[in-house]
Design brief:
heterodimer; A: alpha/beta; 6-stranded mixed sheet; 4-stranded antiparallel sheet; 8 helices; globular; B: alpha+beta; 10-stranded mixed sheet; 10 strands; elongated
């Protein structure tokens, strides 16, 4: 079953006074299946973040459409979009986006509190997640008191606790050291194996090599995609590297 | 490098930081202007020559000191705020290769520009406005307005020296901060990790106790004279309490709220409680200052306004009768000759006396200690609430004035002790012990009581022999006075102010020289000096009120700006996590509203609690019309609240502009 469908997405930024136009996305189409773990790769400025913002309904495309479980994002009313986002999407960001004013537990509870869940239900939901992510004993701490890896695991917990259709991860290993990054990627794999659909945007080859499928974006278009199938992480890593080299040296597009 | 490089850089910096520097410069200008005007008025020769002008100038002089002290503290505070915001900029300069001495040079130029602009414009504005303010002051004081326009050299020099000094001090303080900091620290500047505030229970307890103590003093102080000495302590306690409770108390309350899970984990309360905790940690001191300043404005303006408006009442309380004569009487200066002189004057003016009141009395102050009165001058304490004024009146006069036929024994008295009851059965005074035959509920009206700020006892004794004997004892104790006793003669006249004034002058000449030590009073004559004092206070109240309001406005503005920068990031995160823009906006708006209206509400409460003690203080100044004071206080609070809301509304716009700048969706 297709969870996410992206059709002919185009995004043009216009400077404030309409002087110049910058095309961030030219024509992007792809889809993500239920239970899939996909990664989107591309260099800085290739339109990754723009794409993610549109998928997250934080930004609107110039043309084209995004369907989440068959529902067009553009048909959702402005008033309902936040609730929709809260209930269907989970986010993991490069810079964690935890609020310093809340303890880690309260940060994780935030989306549920917004949905009006009771404290009992929230703690019931949190328990298995905290156990799985190994953050049970730091929940009372504040974001500035823990390491980057711990922060990111809390951010993952925040994304998971709403039981979303799709988790969007924007450069999740970008602020982590290699060990913490390794841990997080293993975690993502586990979550995925339990059936969670994941879409990750990254330019780390290492991160992308953990995904089942890697989409390459160049100049605002899907340039190429790779399926991992039965490959090992190492083989996938090699394959991604080769593709990136080809892209960088101006290779011809092939499917 | 060009010679003008630093000068240019400094100019660019100011322009770039206009959003925060412009209000600062405007405030500097405003303060310079107000200080110049105040000194100008306090030194103005024309004003000094007017009758009552001297009192006014003493008040204004005091005002100029207040402004000076205020200017130092306030400009220092705001400037440190500006620098805190700019630390990152200095760090960048430092990393780009500027040495600290170069940064110092740039800062020096900046201070020079700010100083020149504010002093120049401020003094110019002060000179231009001084005439207008002068006329307003004279109008308030009921003085004639003279023509002409002048500039006061000493006032200019004074203002220049003060503010040049302040600017130099702020510069030195900034340089000290920059000098001590490492470039990396500068770069991180404002955003050093925010620890969750700890609950400081000792501070909460101290705060509660001092606030409670301050309120208690205000509520329980009975005598106006005690109020005079207690007021200062009450103010101090309330200030300490306000600071403690704003800083520690607010955090404690929020933490308690957070502990209540059922309350805390509700959509509406969740972000509000956490957000408030963060804000209170950042802003508690600033908010407490706003609160105290607001209270000062409210108290100052409401009291001075009610004194000014209630001037007629004040005069009536202080001078219950149109003409009031009290003169020492002895063998040479008889009651009869005094009455003859007064009648002669009245006959000359063809005026008839109304509500005539006259009696003989012996007056002395003393401390009432149980049933005993301490009268020795060396032992009397002025500071205690047991200070009383004693009026001994012969029964003959009492019966005549009240149309009664009471009789008294040698050692018997009637006593009237005002609203408070005299508790004892005997009264021992000047080596004699009297039995209280009757406690009077009322005494004849229009006595000298109105002019007394401590409690007065009216004691009716058997006859003049008792009074004369007691006078002799008093003279033994405190040294001899030539007179035997006093004689009071007061009456009203059905006449215009001019006639009364003429009568008053004639009586002065007729009686004054024959009765040394006599006092002849009339509200008509006192009006001018009352206008001078109360008008001066009124002017000062309004003037300083304006200054404090300006300061409050600026602090609010800066708070909004800094809150805005802090909130921007959180605003974005909340949206990403699934709060709608409206929800975020609503939550932030309610928090900001709470933060900014908390000081106002607290100031209102402070003022309400200050009300009893201040009405006592006003009684010292002869204003006993509590109703008027209630209205003035309510009016002042209302006007201030409106003004505050207006300022809040205007600055909130700046806030939203910062927060929503470059926001997605």
């Amino acid at each position: 079953m297709t969870i996410l469908e992206v059709n002919n997405l185009k995004k043009v930024y216009t400077t404030r006074f309409g002087g110049s136009h910058v095309q961030a996305l030219a024509n992007v189409s792809f889809s993500v299946e239920q239970g899939e773990y996909a990664a989107i790769m591309g260099e800085s400025g290739s339109g990754k973040t723009t794409l993610l913002n549109i998928l997250a309904s934080l930004d609107k495309p110039t043309s084209g459409e995004v369907l989440l479980k068959g529902k067009r994002l553009s048909t959702i009313k402005e008033r309902e979009i936040s609730a929709f986002r809260r209930e269907n999407l989970g986010f993991v960001f490069q810079d964690f986006n935890l609020l310093d004013t809340f303890s880690l537990q309260d940060n994780i509870f935030l989306p549920l509190v917004l949905s009006g869940k009771s404290y009992e239900e929230m703690s019931r939901r949190l328990e298995p997640i905290a156990h799985k992510l190994g953050i049970g004993d730091i929940l009372a701490k504040y974001p500035y008191e823990v390491s980057g890896g711990q922060k990111q695991r809390c951010a993952v917990a925040r994304a998971l606790i709403t039981q979303p259709q799709l988790i969007l991860a924007d450069e999740p290993t970008g602020s982590l050291d290699s060990q913490a990054a390794e841990g997080l990627l293993r975690l993502f794999k586990e979550i995925n194996q339990e059936g969670q659909t994941l879409l990750m945007v990254t330019h780390s080859v290492k991160a992308a090599s953990h995904a089942q499928r890697v989409l390459f974006i160049k100049d605002g278009e899907v340039f190429h995609q790779l399926y991992k199938a039965g490959m090992s992480d190492e083989a996938m890593y090699q394959k991604i590297s080769d593709t990136l080299t080809t892209m960088a040296t101006g290779g011809v597009r092939h499917e | 490098m060009s010679r003008f490089f630093y000068a240019k850089l400094a100019a660019t910096n100011l322009k770039k930081n206009a959003q925060t520097y412009l209000p600062y410069i405007l405030t500097c200008m405003g303060t310079v202007m107000m200080y110049y005007i105040m000194v100008f008025l306090a030194e103005n020769e024309g004003l000094g020559k007017m009758s009552g002008g001297f009192q006014v100038q003493t008040i204004l002089k005091l005002g100029s000191y207040v402004i000076a002290i205020f200017a130092v503290i306030f400009l220092f505070y705001t400037h440190s705020f500006l620098i805190k915001r700019r630390k990152k900029e200095f760090g960048l300069f430092n990393i780009l290769g500027m040495e600290k001495k170069h940064i110092a040079k740039v800062l020096g130029f900046e201070t020079l520009y700010v100083g020149v602009i504010s002093l120049g414009a401020g003094l110019l504005g002060g000179i231009l406005l001084s005439k207008l303010i002068f006329m307003v002051l004279l109008k308030i004081l009921n003085f004639e307005v003279p023509l002409g326009f002048n500039v006061s050299g000493p006032a200019l020099a004074d203002a220049f020296a003060l503010f040049a000094g302040i600017f130099l001090l702020t510069l030195l303080n900034t340089l000290r901060q920059i000098h001590l900091a490492k470039p990396v620290e500068l770069l991180q500047g404002g955003q050093t990790g925010e620890k969750e505030p700890k609950t400081k229970w000792p501070l909460v307890v101290i705060g509660t106790l001092s606030l409670g103590g301050g309120y208690y003093i205000s509520l329980t102080t009975q005598s106006p004279l005690a109020a005079l000495s207690q007021f200062f302590y009450a103010v101090l306690l309330v200030m300490v309490g306000t600071y403690c409770l704003f800083t520690a108390g607010s955090i404690a309350v929020l933490k308690l709220l957070r502990r209540n899970k059922g309350y805390y984990y509700q959509t509406r309360h969740f972000t509000a409680v956490a957000g408030m905790m963060y804000r209170m940690k950042q802003n508690a001191v600033g908010l407490a200052s706003i609160c105290i300043m607001a209270t000062a404005v409210l108290v100052m303006v409401s009291t001075t306004v009610s004194l000014y408006i209630g001037m007629e009442d004040v005069l009536r309380t202080r001078y219950p009768q149109t003409i009031m004569i009290s003169a020492p009487v002895s063998a040479q200066q008889s009651v009869e000759s005094l009455q003859r002189s007064v009648h002669k004057v009245l006959a000359k003016h063809r005026l008839v006396v109304k509500d005539r009141l006259d009696y003989r009395y012996l007056f002395f102050p003393g401390n009432q200690e149980g049933g005993r009165v301490i009268t020795a001058e060396s032992k009397i304490s002025n500071a205690t609430s047991s200070l009383r004024e004693y009026y001994l009146i012969p029964l003959e006069d009492y019966n005549r004035l009240t149309h009664k036929t009471v009789s008294l024994g040698d050692r018997e008295i009637l006593i009237y002790s005002g609203p408070s009851k005299y508790e004892n059965d005997t009264l021992t005074v000047l080596n004699r012990t009297f039995t209280v035959k009757e406690r009077l509920d009322s005494f004849f009206e229009n006595t000298l009581e109105g002019s007394s700020i401590s409690g007065s006892y009216y004691i009716v004794v058997k006859d003049m022999n008792v009074i004369k004997a007691m006078k002799a004892t008093l003279a033994e104790e405190n040294g001899d006075k030539p007179s035997d006793y006093n004689y009071y003669l007061g009456f009203n006249l059905d006449a215009g102010e001019a006639d009364i004034s003429a009568v008053y002058q004639d009586i002065r000449t007729a009686v004054g020289s024959d009765y040394p030590g006599s006092s002849i009073e009339s509200p008509v004559a006192a009006k001018e000096s009352f206008f001078a004092v109360y008008g001066g206070l009124f002017f000062l109240g309004i003037f300083l009120g304006a200054l404090f309001i300006m300061a409050t406005v600026l602090i609010i503005y800066y708070k909004q700006v800094s809150e805005g920068y802090d909130d921007k990031a959180r605003f974005e995160i909340m949206q990403k996590v699934g709060m709608s823009r409206e929800e975020v906006k609503g939550s932030i708006r309610s928090q900001i509203l709470t933060v900014f209206f908390l000081p106002l509400v607290t100031a209102g409460i402070h003022t309400a609690f200050a009300f009893p003690i201040i009405s006592k203080l006003l009684a010292v100044l002869y204003l006993t019309n509590v109703g008027l004071f209630v209205w003035c206080t309510a009016g002042t609070i209302l006007v201030f609240a409106l003004f505050y809301a207006l300022v809040y509304g205007l600055t909130a716009k700046v806030y939203y502009r910062i927060v929503s700048w470059g926001m997605s969706v």
